[in-house]
Specification:
Chain lengths: 405, 411
């Protein structure tokens, strides 16, 4: 069956580019449905879903939206309408993939629409702004960002090359179908570079039990993606063993970009979770020359182009309080598993960040703050040791089975 | 030999994923070539170009970097070695696209390799860290970044779907590749939201003079991308219509992430250029209400836009900007002119706009006139930057420089 692609763009400023994209998509054997999300000027080409329809989906007329007091509200209204339209269309099987093109404003509108669609639906954004901080635009979604290199203000050899490739990419993605496999129970887990061994060990233990492991890179957006998919109901259990993001958030590290929901979704949904202090031993800094002066004198571990700075007892006590507050609100079963011989490969015995006293401050604070029915288990092993992974998996398994009884 | 899609990854940690990705690419009828950039543990799956060969092309050996135990050095050697090999494959016409997958380190290596390929060669990076600041990772290159959402540790329903999408994307890109060929001389033009109307007039003027316009979004990387393509010799002339990036650069504004080479490539290469102060009237910052406005700008005039707003540049700042710009233009080895619209430099700086301040703009013009080399003329046009008459004047100035440059020097 012919695959259908939803094309988003502002047809007043990008009409010619959208036309070219539509032709390229059709040359690739797919069908294009163009939605005009422009507001101000006159469309220079025809849309399948006109801007008037988009405005109506936001409960207003185009004139009403244009009359709003500022650009921010005008765009907000158009985003709302476009999301309504796209969701409706998607639920009736109206498209297999979505592509958007635009500059700053266009990217703002198109990626908002893409973020409203489930993970797995192919999403491609071609933008002249893709080579900057895109965290707000990509969020926790599987959006592919393609830089247009040149501005999408005219068709020329640079822009037509990029757009032709973009058309190829989205058609290729939409044609993609996953070979189906028998459903297995999926478990979510957090991990990052210096706790990778733990993820490998956990994966092995879970496979033996017939579970499937989905690992999230605990770098801010990764932790939030796990929360989001947990909220979508994808997981039967959560192994949040690398909570590193919290120390970065508290001490000003690189991967602290988490939202309020971090470490709360599993608890709110009543999904069993085992939590660990993976990576709380260090604050991650992106480049050696960026190490802030306040960390002077602390022990450091050179990872590659990134540096890990040892966290202090005071910082850890503070993080323990945050974690405890979140976990205390959980309505489902929770266990906290502490490996006593180090929380990352940087704090093994003999490694520069080895500091059992600071670690102890965390455990003590946690014991004071966690409600009594949340058990803290201390495991005499390093986080990378098979023993720790086995303990985490078997504790989770226990909670899952007693819950299902 | 048939052309292949190069698949780059660390086979000790991502062997399974790399293997799955290449299988999915091959299922679509394309040949793959797996490049192993891992160092630490044994590769889990076979490579077409082994890590030993890569370390060697990187000027070291695998034994040496393993023995050294310095992760940064290992990453450097493997990136260099893989870049050289991939570049050679491209030059030999054996490569139809390249895809890399990885986490933090893998993305660093993968994009390092992808950045060595020229514009137009399909490049895709599947990464766990694609939802953040991409300016260093992508730079000025046409790398598509696919956010993997989940970590790449083992195959599961989610990672398979993402990798399947990635296989579809790179194959689709490779099949759509029709190469870069220009038929008319290309003129690089910078532009941004507040002077888009002007840039659109510029485009029709350029086209009627027989040129093709390549516009660059003056957002920091956009201006740098233009510099890059000037260096590659792709552009015959430059109309630097929106030099706004320099204003943002003063205060780390929205479009301020430019390098020291901005506004210098055309001069160095000796190609004709016309410079316009588009957007120097404002500094664009991310705030959308009086409450979120940074304290140090309180009291300045504001152009409320969307989630971004423009604050008025001061006379002092314009003096600094004139010095920076004059310094760069004075070093040019080719023909240069500056064209200034006297009735405002952006949508915000127009008679009815909130940032309209011709007397402040005059400070810039006077300083520039004092500092610029005698042989660099300043043309003043009694119009707004978005007026068709200004676009005509700027384009005809450039057209004159272009035709002079074509004439033999002896005349």
């Amino acid at each position: 069956m012919t695959k259908k692609i939803l094309v988003l763009g502002t047809l007043d400023t990008k009409g010619q580019e959208i036309d070219f994209l539509r032709r390229s998509i059709e040359l690739s054997g797919c069908r294009a449905t163009v939605m005009d999300v422009g507001i101000l000027g006159q469309p220079t080409t025809e849309a399948d879903i006109a801007r008037e329809d988009v405005a109506r989906a936001a409960g207003q007329t185009l004139e009403q939206i244009r009359a709003l007091p500022n650009r921010k509200r005008i765009i907000g209204a158009m985003i709302q309408g476009a999301i309504e339209k796209a969701k409706l269309l998607y639920s009736s099987g109206g498209f297999d993939g979505v592509i958007g093109i635009g500059g700053g404003t266009g990217m703002h509108i198109c990626t908002a629409v893409m973020r409203s669609l489930p993970i797995g639906v192919p999403k491609l954004m071609v933008s002249s702004m893709a080579s900057m901080d895109v965290s707000e635009f990509v969020g926790a979604k599987d959006i592919t960002m393609m830089t247009s290199v040149a501005d999408l203000a005219s068709l020329n050899i640079v822009t037509s090359t990029v757009l032709a490739q973009a058309a190829g990419a989205i058609c290729g993605m939409a044609g993609a179908s996953v070979p189906s496999s028998e459903p297995r129970t999926a478990i979510a887990m957090t991990s990052f570079g210096i706790t990778t061994q733990c993820a490998d060990n956990v994966g092995r233990c879970l496979r033996e039990m017939g579970h499937e492991l989905v690992v999230f890179h605990a770098v801010g957006s990764g932790g939030m993606a796990m929360e989001e998919l947990t909220d979508q109901g994808l997981f039967a259990g959560v192994l949040d063993l690398t909570t590193h993001e919290f120390i970065d958030q508290v001490a000003g590290g690189h991967y602290g970009g988490v939202g309020d929901e971090r470490l709360e979704t599993a608890g709110r949904k009543g999904i069993p979770q085992v939590v660990g202090p993976g990576g709380l031993d260090c604050v991650a800094i992106f480049a050696p020359e960026d190490v802030p002066a306040k960390f002077a004198g602390r022990r450091t571990y050179y990872h590659d182009f990134r540096v890990c700075v040892r966290s202090t007892a005071a910082e850890l006590a503070f993080v323990a309080q945050i974690l405890a507050d979140k976990l205390n609100r959980a309505v489902g079963p929770v266990k906290f598993l502490v490996p006593l011989r180090g929380w990352s490969s940087a704090s093994r015995h003999c490694e520069p960040l080895f500091d059992p006293e600071a670690d102890r401050a965390f455990v003590d604070a946690l014991k004071r703050s966690l409600k009594p029915d949340i058990e803290i288990r201390e495991i005499d092993a390093h986080i990378d040791d098979l023993e720790y992974a086995q303990a985490a998996v078997s504790n989770l398994h226990q909670m899952m089975t007693s819950l299902s009884r | 030999m048939a052309r292949a899609i190069v698949v780059i990854g660390t086979l000790d940690t991502k062997g399974e994923e790399v293997e799955y990705l290449s299988q999915r690419i091959e299922a679509r009828g394309h040949r793959t070539m797996v490049v192993d950039v891992g160092v630490l543990d044994e590769p889990l799956t076979p490579a077409d170009i082994a890590r030993e060969a890569i370390a060697k092309r990187g000027g070291s050996s695998l034994e040496e970097i393993v023995a050294l135990g310095d992760r940064r050095e290992a990453v450097r050697v493997m990136t260099l070695g893989a870049s050289r090999i991939v570049e050679e494959l491209h030059l030999a016409g054996q490569l139809s696209g390249a895809v890399a997958l990885g986490g933090g380190t893998g993305t660093h290596i993968g994009t390092g390799v992808l950045r060595t390929l020229p514009l137009g060669v399909p490049k895709l990076m599947v990464s766990t860290v694609a939802s953040r600041d991409m300016s260093e990772t992508i730079g000025t290159k046409d790398i598509a970044m696919m956010h993997s959402v989940i970590d790449m540790v083992g195959l599961n329903a989610v990672s398979k779907k993402i990798l399947d999408n990635a296989a579809g994307a790179i194959v689709g890109m490779a099949e759509a590749d029709f190469g870069l060929t220009a038929t008319r001389p290309l003129i690089g033009v910078t532009s941004f939201g507040f002077c888009t109307a002007g840039a659109m007039h510029v485009r029709s003027c350029l086209e009627s003079c027989g040129y093709e316009m390549v516009a660059f979004h003056a957002n920091g990387t956009g201006g740098m991308a233009m510099e890059d393509l000037v260096e590659q010799g792709l552009l015959a002339g430059v109309l630097d219509f929106a030099t706004h990036e320099f204003a943002d650069h003063l205060h780390n504004g929205y479009c301020g992430n430019i390098g020291p080479g901005r506004l210098e490539s055309a001069g160095r290469k000796g190609i004709p250029q016309v410079i316009v102060p588009g957007g120097l009237d404002c500094i664009v910052l991310e705030f959308d209400s009086p409450e979120t406005m940074p304290a140090r700008f309180k009291g300045r005039k504001v152009f409320w836009y969307d989630f971004r707003s423009g604050v008025r540049t001061s006379a002092e700042e314009l003096l600094i900007l004139a010095q920076t710009i004059a310094g760069k233009l004075n070093r040019a080895t080719g023909p240069v002119q500056v064209a200034i619209p006297l009735r405002g430099w952006s949508e915000a700086d127009s008679v009815d706009g909130p940032l309209y301040e011709p007397e402040t703009n005059q400070v810039f013009i006077d300083e520039l006139r004092t500092l610029l080399r005698q042989d660099i003329p300043i043309i003043e046009v009694d119009a707004h930057i978005n007026d068709p008459i200004f676009a005509e004047a700027a384009v005809s100035a450039l057209d004159a420089l272009m035709s002079m440059a074509k004439r033999p020097a002896a005349l």
